[in-house]
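RECORD TYPE: inverse folding
INPUT: structure tokens
STRUCTURE:
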């Protein structure tokens, strides 16, 4: 029986749904999907409260994608205060190892036990408050970090679910299959599969070119009896937004990121993905 009085269980008792974002392979767009998932869940209702936790310890990219580079987290007597991407509204909270590094370019060179300790601290010490959704961005593959994460969250297992991100190429799909067998081995319910970088939409004429082929994710979902949540094409507007320069002033929030994202074509497609996910979550 998982310990319901553990610091992680106590801290996460005010979080209704925890969504873990996984990918078998690096570079398929897992962090950008996690970021878009958090932004769309935030936009799904005027009262939705969302958190995003970046446990990709060696390659944290969520602060940059949310325009929050340069922020630091404050330690209060009741834990770490997350950084809010929507400023004083405080409905989109973010925590990442990126906020703990002295310089943005510093690398995290930690052995397993230190990474495990950091993950435990992220889960037990961040003052999320009431959250409808906590999105967790993980490193690529299925590593010790994933096992640590699930071990620490055993007391809240009934609120966990996962989303698998893949691209359409055969190598990425093979790695997504490994990811799927991992989730089955640890008994983690899967909300569905997202195919990212599925074709390229020309910004001039709207013609779709299937640069990396397309449809492999949907086919895998059908074969494995998973829900196919949707496909997202390569969107140059999205890269410009997520990889944009830092805010002019260190510690400030990049102006209008939430509004700018909502007008991209990716946001419109992602809205449907989120509707399907929310329906699954009930
Ligand atoms: N649909 C898309 N259209 C255009 N660019 C995309 C799309 N998805 C992701 N990208 C871009 O591709 C790059 C890699 O994406 P991202 O960092 O999300 O991948 P990742 O799977 O999290 O990588 P890793 O886990 O190896 O760090 C980023 O620059 C991101 O902005
Ligand atoms: S897709 Fe159409 S507009 Fe885009 S480069 Fe090709 S021909 Fe030109």
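DESIGNED SEQUENCE:
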């Amino acid at each position: 029986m998982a310990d319901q009085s553990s610091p992680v269980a106590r801290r996460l008792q005010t979080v209704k749904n925890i969504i873990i974002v996984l990918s078998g392979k690096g570079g398929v767009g897992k962090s950008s999907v996690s970021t878009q998932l958090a932004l769309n869940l935030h936009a799904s209702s005027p009262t939705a409260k969302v958190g995003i936790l970046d446990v990709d310890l060696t390659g944290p990219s969520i602060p940059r994608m949310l325009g929050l580079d340069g922020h630091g987290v404050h330690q209060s007597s009741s834990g770490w205060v997350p950084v809010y991407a929507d400023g004083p509204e405080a409905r989109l909270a973010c925590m990442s190892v990126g906020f703990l590094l002295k310089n943005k370019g510093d690398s995290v060179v930690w052995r397993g036990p230190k990474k495990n300790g950091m993950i435990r601290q992220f889960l037990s010490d961040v003052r999320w408050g009431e959250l409808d959704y906590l999105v967790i961005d993980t490193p690529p593959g299925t590593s010790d970090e994933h096992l640590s994460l699930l071990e620490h969250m055993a007391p809240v297992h009934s609120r966990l679910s996962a989303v698998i991100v893949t691209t359409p190429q055969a190598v990425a799909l093979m790695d997504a299959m490994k990811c799927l067998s991992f989730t089955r081995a640890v008994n983690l319910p899967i909300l569905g599969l997202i195919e990212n970088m599925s074709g390229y939409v020309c910004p001039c004429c709207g013609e779709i070119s299937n640069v990396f082929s397309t449809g492999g994710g949907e086919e895998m979902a059908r074969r494995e009896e998973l829900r196919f949540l949707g496909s997202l094409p390569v969107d140059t507007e999205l890269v410009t937004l997520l990889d944009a320069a830092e805010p002019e002033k260190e510690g400030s929030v990049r102006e209008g990121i939430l509004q700018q994202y909502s007008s991209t074509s990716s946001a419109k497609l992602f809205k449907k993905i989120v509707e399907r996910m929310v329906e699954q979550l009930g």
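NOTES: The pocket of adenosine-5'-triphosphate (ligand 1) is lined by residues 23, 26-32, 56, 59, 61, 140, 196-197, 232, 234-235, 238-239, 242-243 (CB under 6 Å).
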